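Technical annex B. To support the medicinal chemistry partners, we prepared a structural model of the target in complex with flavin mononucleotide, based solely on the information shown next.
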Amino acid sequence: MTTTTHKRVPIPKNGVDYRGKIVLAPMVRSGECPSRLLALHYGADLVWGPETIDKSLIGTTRRVNSVTNTIDFTRFSSNGSKNAAIAANQRESLIYRLHPAREGKQLIYQIGTANPTTAVEAAKLIAGDVAGIDVNAGCPKPFSTSGGMGAALLKTPELLCSILRALVAEVGTPFEIGISVKIRLLNDPADTEKLVRSLCETGITGLTIHCRTTPMRPREPAIRAQLRMIANICREAGVACLMNGDVASRADAEALMAEYGVDGAMIATAAETNPSVFRALADGGMAPWEEAVHRYIRTALDVHNRWGNTKYLLGQMIPGKQPAYKTMSRSKSYSELIQSLKNEPAFQRAANCDFSDEMVELARDLDRELEIGAFEVPKMSKAEKKRAAKESAQTESKTLPPAGTKRTADQASLDDHHNATEKRKSDVSVDVASGTVAEQASTITV
Ligand SMILES: Cc1cc2nc3c(=O)[nH]c(=O)nc-3n(C[C@H](O)[C@H](O)[C@H](O)COP(=O)(O)O)c2cc1C
């Protein structure tokens, strides 16, 4: 009897093998931290974060958030942030939040990029915190394609390959994690074949095929015709192949993987509606929507999720015809949401859906932190911002020496100290990004 052994691209020490995995797809808005943690709770083997564009990550500060136990990549918006009067009123934007203990070893960061240099620069900032970097070469939305990113890269395969090669050499190798790519089908199977062959030669460890072409709408059924061919090319090259498109549950994924000979499967919209699609039938299969919603709210409270994002997700998870949907839509804060869902018969009937006093308290604290509901503070109008900026500029000009005045020794020393601090700050964000999660207790905490 002969046994066939297939070639396998080695999986780096800090990376993960996509083989045999059923995973959460990258989803802008729907793939934020609490959604990923919930998918993992229900048995997802790996989770992809939402596509984050290289230029958004470049320039962020990496902070260890000791309240939520997350790692936050944040930045001030460029608009007016240097002005102290405005900055005091301006929130730092959260670009990316991840939970190292609960997802770090199973999290793949998906990058939006059209340039090898900026891709490498951004990926280096987060590579120490994740199990892999995936390049989005499938998003058909104009915000992505207009910059040459996403599905536009399918039309520039040399550029796509050069991005992957740069990431493999300059990020995958030093950080010992895998680099992968997510693509769509091309119309002509011969073109898809050629593309997949060249992608497999770049040193990637995994490839996801979304079984739709770029112009296809999400509601159009996925096409399976090219799947076996793609899986075979990946297998020959030793690259793990994930299938994506209309995969409904773990059981469905397992059946499709067996039928088409692919290594794993990725689920998006079904998991957005109910993340318990990842749970094996033997462990209870899909949970009722009430249970998934209750658990989602709890997780959102744990990681201090943005209220707008939580509400958006609940809009996907609560069936539109349920009275709870209206209740949720009307809520203006976590406290209001919990108080009103508590009284909904659907939640009173459901098992394990008690909104405990602890949750009520957490909700109040989070409302206070986010300044929503009872804690909402009036926002500064444009005119007020302008006035504050003017006043600050006037104060500054009074304290500065007239132009041409020599700096005193004290002033010079203060300035030098300020410059050194600024430099140290920028060194911190570079240094810590190259460390491992365990090493980073000494980084900035908030
Ligand atoms: C809300 C939403 C956001 C998405 N964002 C991304 C993204 O950031 N990156 C990406 O590669 N695909 C993105 N997609 C596409 C999905 O990852 C997936 O390829 C597609 O939905 C097909 O899978 P499905 O049939 O299981 O929904 C998104 C899809 C949805 C529904």
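Notes passed to the chemistry partners:
Residues 25-30, 50-51, 110, 136, 138-139, 182, 210, 218, 244-247, 267-270, 272 surround flavin mononucleotide (CB under 6 Å).
Residues 63 and 438 are 14 Å apart (CA to CA).
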